Amino acid sequence: MTRSFDPRHIEFRSAHWIGDRYVTGPSALDLRRPSDAAPYATSPIADLAVIDEAVQTAKAALKTSGWATSRPRQRTEAMHRWADLVDAEAETLGRLESLASTRPISQSVTVDVAVTAEQIRFFAELADKEGGDVVPTDGDHLGMILSEPYGVVGAITPWNVPLSMAGWKLGPALAAGNAVVLKPSEMTPFSTLYLAELAVRAGIPAGLVNIVLGDGPTTGASLIGHPDIAKVSFTGSTLAGGAILRTIAETRIKPMTLELGGKSPQIVFASADIGNAAACIARGILINAGQTCVAGTRVIADRRIAGALLDRLCTAMSAYRAGATWDAASDFSPIISERQIARIDAIVEAAISGGAERMLGGRRMARDGYFYEPTILTGVAPDSPALTEEIFGPVLTVQIVDGEDEAFALSDHPAYGLAAGIYTTDLGQAMRAMKRVEAGTIWINRYGRSRDHILPTGGYKSSGIGKDLGKEAYRANRRQKSVLVAI
Q1: CATH 3.40.605.10 assigned to 7-260+463-486
Q2: What is the helix (H) or strand (E) element at residue 239, kind and residue range?
Q3: Known catalytic residues?
Q4: Among residues 462, 468, 477, which one has the least CA distance to residue 241?
Q5: Which residues does 53 contact at the CB level (< 8 Å), separation at least 6?
Q6: Backbone phi, then psi, for 3, in 5-degree steps?
């Protein structure tokens, strides 16, 4: 049975989720589907009063439910029931995800929803396995490190993969004993709202998961700056991360996890398997039409294999099929908005005006919606935004080098250090690259995250602070208290 669906027949609620109910507000934001540019909904903007209601609901739920203080295995069991419901409601969640995001229905059900359920289960199992410690002290004392939840976590997720990003935030925070007030992107809130509804249906106490809709300047700033938000978790652009840092500095200092932008290199050495490298690079830039923070946007290729690699890349990237996110035959995404596609086009045209050669694509597609061609640029000027800025689109630059040292030097970006890909069959070279390249995640002879949720993700430099996923994400949602007892 095909997964294709008619977006006009999908039911959803455009309201905040606070406690166990939808809370309406004045419609303030007009939403358009990126696949056809059609207006389809409006969304409220949560002001400080709505944020305060959500935060106070979360505080009260923590107090009355005993979520943080009862047997940890109870949290595990409730979260497993939640993950089971996510699996059971995969078609509904997938359609809500693909309705207005950039995620094709062929991927949102089998990847996004499935990964979200896996993440919930992964973090659920840490609830009764991660705790404090007894530490060595002198013989007249007993030293302990206690581990406690923060309380209410404020989370903000992006529009590019909204459902799994919600799993990144909700999973570790709830497993660690916290409540959450989460603001999804104003452009893609509906799968996250249904995920919160499923949490209550699964038996997670009402009020522990609250979803507030709205924009960054009003809703996001009010959430981050609320005095009862004890910890912040954000995934998004480096620019928005800087705004969050300023808000925290100006209101109340609190711990934070920030997973921010990237300009990730993919280094192809002469010994690489060129077929594998081309396939991985194509996926690494075209998944979600390049609209991921880890998109492998900068190919750095050894001169000896650069021509063959370019030929393979042009073939691989031309094979992707653009189409509406509700069409099961589509595997190439639209761009999220008119504003974003105009920015991509401007960066590409500026690069070409500056001397770059358009090897593939480089134009807006002549079809409804916001679609941009898979693009390869060579000969890009070193100071071009195509090489220096996060484009968030299907644009790949190719630089040609002579040798390992030049490749490593080009791989370093002055601001970003989120991820990198290395292609080589030389084990020593792979080990040197692993140590030399400055990035929070290194993929060797592959590109992109696996479903091994034990591996943390997070960047160097301006690509972030702290880690998501892995045990590190769970621990980031707990605070430590040192205790020394005189015997």
Answers
A1: yes
A2: helix 238-250
A3: 259, 293
A4: 462
A5: 18, 23
A6: -90, -5
For the chain, give every domain's residue range.
7-260+463-486, 265-451
Evaluate if pTM is beyond 0.85: yes
CATH class of 265-451: alpha beta
**Side chain identity, residue 485:** V
Q: How far apart are CA 159 and CA 101, in angstroms?
A: 7
* pLDDT values of the chain reduced to their tens digit, one per residue, 487 residues: 479 999 999 999 999 999 999 999 887 899 999 999 999 999 999 999 999 999 999 999 999 999 999 999 999 999 999 999 999 999 999 999 999 899 999 999 999 999 999 999 999 999 999 889 999 999 899 999 999 999 999 999 999 999 999 999 999 999 999 999 999 999 999 999 999 999 999 999 999 999 999 999 999 999 999 999 999 999 999 999 999 999 999 999 999 999 999 999 999 999 999 999 999 999 999 999 999 999 999 999 999 999 999 999 999 999 999 999 999 999 999 999 999 999 999 999 999 999 999 999 999 999 999 999 999 999 999 999 999 999 999 999 999 999 999 999 999 999 999 999 999 999 999 999 999 999 999 999 999 999 999 999 999 999 999 999 999 999 999 999 999 999 9
